[in-house]
Amino acid sequence: MTLPGYRQSLARPHDFEPVRVEGRLPDSLRGTLYRNGPALFEHGGRRHRHLFEGDGAVCAIRIGDDEVQCAHRLVESEGLREERAAGKPLYGTAASWPRRLAANWRSRFKNTANTSVWRWQERMFALMERGSPTELDPRTLATIGTTTFDGLVASGFSAHPHRVRSRRADYNFGLVPGRHPRIELLEFPWQGAPRVLGSVPLESHVMLHDFIATDRHLVFFIAPVKLQLGRVLAGSADLDRIFRYDPAAGTEIVVVPIDDPGKPSRFRVEAFWQWHFAGAWESGGEIVIDFIRHPDFRSLGDLNAADLPGRGRVTRAWLDPRAKTLRQEVRWDTGCEYPRIDPRFEGGEHRQLFVTYDGKQSLLAKVDLETGKAETWEPGTGCFPSEIVMVPRDADAAEGDGHALSLIYDEAADCSHVAVLDTARFGDGPVARIHLGHRVPMTFHGLWVGRD
Ligand SMILES: [Fe+2]
């Protein structure tokens, strides 16, 4: 199978260097866009079978008054250093079966830090859900190393921490395996030390990618995607073989009160899968939740294919934790993923949603969640856009008013650029493009850090 360029390894890791801007960058846009994704897909001539296995690399685009600079650096993980020293792959599907078997039995894996970037208390971390956060120097992207925050992170750490402004804290979770698997709930205040809020026991080992937080609750949609432990111990490392979707079991809804985490509301509904939540808020006795709903778990395999069928739909749900009901309604009936909202509205009520489709249809969209109407822009054939990062025009701008940034890989040029769209004229396409001068493989998630 010939893979598109965004699935090829990074072209040229480098420190910050000037890049070319086409068009005029808005004066309000000063700061740095960070993107993270798998960027090294082979070792010693042997290629990983799934996109998720690639070593992470962070790409940073720094927009100043006089110059725009870009840096692209691999996360120098312990596993990557070991593989370089050995001259061959030691982990995952690229490794030989005996090596995989030995690694699996010893519960050893490579923390690729390839999924997202998280900023907390002026520190920066590259995240992947199976391992601890990897701290980076935000000025240089140099890898500092993994941290458990003094033992707080027991095992995994989701790549999707969520910010709740009213509580002046970020929340996250980690899956803890073992005989009694559980979800560990973590609170990271904007000042002071992080803490474990509590834990939620699980019936089985599952895949759980994201959750959502409101002023009062942490909400989990636990789909029946179960880890096949026997296959892991037999040395399998194929992601789509070690997880099994069991729709008969349904999707479990878990609602944890932040101030009383020992008393969650739990119930099951008809099975569905979701990778990503967009946002949620409290409304009377209900929680309103926006997310991308998938009818099943086929997207794990689809992600690895060159063309994504796009089964995810923008969906709004009304969750009543006391009545134990979840009502769902599709709000935009077009295949999409990577939902993002205006960052000022995280943890609160919102109606503007930005989504991306990075398959054959290749489009970016701004969706009004109240009316279900969308403005779209198509980057064109052979252009693969990444998740939109939304930057408000200023602190007082209306919700969703500002600029949408998407890192786009252009196959014909084998180069990537950042498209800058004015959200007030979303369908007109970019007002400026920042040309990086080389390929950046697919990135999953990123963030904007404004200049102080
Ligand atoms: Fe994600």
Features of the shown structure:
452 residues; mainly beta; Methylamine Dehydrogenase, Chain H; 6-stranded antiparallel sheet; 5-stranded antiparallel sheet; binds fe (ii) ion
Describe the protein's topology:
Blueprint: E1 14-18, E2 20-23, E3 31-40, E4 42-43, E5 46-47, E6 55-63, E7 68-74, H1 78-86, H2 97-105, E8 116-120, E9 123-127, E10 134-136, E11 143-146, E12 162-164, E13 169-176, E14 182-189, E15 195-201, E16 212-213, E17 217-222, E18 225-227, H3 229-233, H4 239-242, E19 243-245, E20 251-257, E21 265-269, E22 277-283, E23 286-293, H5 299-304, E24 313-320, E25 325-332, E26 337-340, E27 352-357, E28 363-368, E29 374-377, E30 383-385, E31 389-392, E32 402-410, E33 415-422, E34 430-435, E35 445-450
Antiparallel strand pairs: 1-7, 2-34, 3-6, 3-35, 4-5, 6-7, 8-9, 9-10, 10-11, 12-13, 13-14, 14-15, 16-17, 17-20, 18-19, 20-21, 22-23, 23-24, 24-25, 26-27, 27-28, 28-29, 30-32, 31-32, 32-33, 33-34
The structure holds fe (ii) ion.
Brief summary:
With 452 residues, the protein is mainly beta. The chain has helices at 78-86, 97-105, 229-233, 239-242, 299-304, and strands at 14-18, 20-23, 31-40, 42-43, 46-47, 55-63, 68-74, 116-120, 123-127, 134-136, 143-146, 162-164, 169-176, 182-189, 195-201, 212-213, 217-222, 225-227, 243-245, 251-257, 265-269, 277-283, 286-293, 313-320, 325-332, 337-340, 352-357, 363-368, 374-377, 383-385, 389-392, 402-410, 415-422, 430-435, 445-450.
How would you describe this structure to a colleague?
By secondary structure, the protein is mainly β. It has one domain: YVTN repeat-like/Quinoprotein amine dehydrogenase (Methylamine Dehydrogenase, Chain H), CATH 2.130.10.10. The protein has five helices and 35 strands. The protein has helices spanning 78-86, 97-105, 229-233, 239-242, 299-304, and strands spanning 14-18, 20-23, 31-40, 42-43, 46-47, 55-63, 68-74, 116-120, 123-127, 134-136, 143-146, 162-164, 169-176, 182-189, 195-201, 212-213, 217-222, 225-227, 243-245, 251-257, 265-269, 277-283, 286-293, 313-320, 325-332, 337-340, 352-357, 363-368, 374-377, 383-385, 389-392, 402-410, 415-422, 430-435, 445-450. Strands 2, 30, 31, 32, 33 and 34 form a six-stranded antiparallel β-sheet that branches. Strands 1-7-6-3-35 form a five-stranded antiparallel β-sheet, with no helix packed on it. It is globular, with a radius of gyration of 21 Å. The termini are far apart. The model has no long low-confidence stretch (mean pLDDT 92). Bound molecules: fe (ii) ion.
